[in-house]
Amino acid sequence: MELLLKKRFTFTEADVRKNILVPFRVERDYVRLAIRLRYGPKSIRDPEIILPKIQACVETYFPDGFRLTEEDMKDFDQLLNFVTLSLDKDGEYVGCAHRHPPEQTILISEEGSDWGFAPAPAGRGDWRIVLHVQAVVVGAVDYDLEVYGLEREESGDALPAL
Fold first, then answer.
1. Contact (Cβ atoms closer than 8 angstroms) between residue 109 and residue 123
2. DSSP class of residue 117?
3. Which residues lie closer than 8 Å to 55 by C-beta, 6 or more apart?
4. Residue 54: in which H helix or E strand, if any?
5. How confident is the model over 50-99, as pLDDT tens digits?
6. What is the DSSP track for 65-88?
7. Residue-wise over 54-79: b if at least 16 C-beta within 10 A, else e?
8. Exposure of 84 by Cβ count < 10 A (0-12 exposed, 13-18 middle, 19+ buried)?
9. 156 vs 7, 25, 29, 36, 118, CA distance in Å?
10. Counting Cβ atoms within 10 Å, is residue 147 exposed (0-12), middle (13-18) or buried (19+)?
11. Is the pLDDT of residue 134 over 90?
């Protein structure tokens, strides 16, 4: 197992709708690449923060005059920060993970990649991860990203904790 990339980012509301390019070079062939990510906080539950944000969305995206009732508002007990990831190699799209879990391990290999990603040789070339900052509710979101090259006998389960 070889650590190929380790980065930490901090995203704020100013980063929403931005794509953060993270290029890295792989110098030799591996059986698999493991992309690990973790970000947080994932959910914001403070009603004083989320209720005005929900009202602003209603004013922006719903027809004029539409109002949420107090009963409707009970369904909104949290808002989620959301950062997604896509991947390419040598300028060719490999796939994307637009999933909500704030901790993920994505495996890429020629034999078969995780859901959302095409099978791809896990080796030599110019790779690029693109982080898509979909939502930062308030404050800052810390994002940890690591990429490992794995040999045949190594699995994603053997990766060190983030």
1. no
2. B
3. 68
4. helix 47-61
5. 888 888 888 888 888 888 887 877 788 899 999 999 999 999 999 999 99
6. T----HHHHTT---EE-EEEEEEE
7. beeeeeeeeeeeeebeeeeeeeeeeb
8. middle
9. 19, 20, 17, 9, 18
10. buried
11. yes
Instruction: State how far the Cα of 41 lies from the Cα of 55, in Å rounded to an integer.
Output: 22
43 neighbors 80 (Cβ within 8 angstroms):
yes
pLDDT at position 154, please? 64
Q: Which amino acid is at 26?
A: V
**Residue written as token pair 């690990």:** 36
Cα–Cα distance, 12 to 10 (Å, whole number): 7
- pTM for the model: 0.86
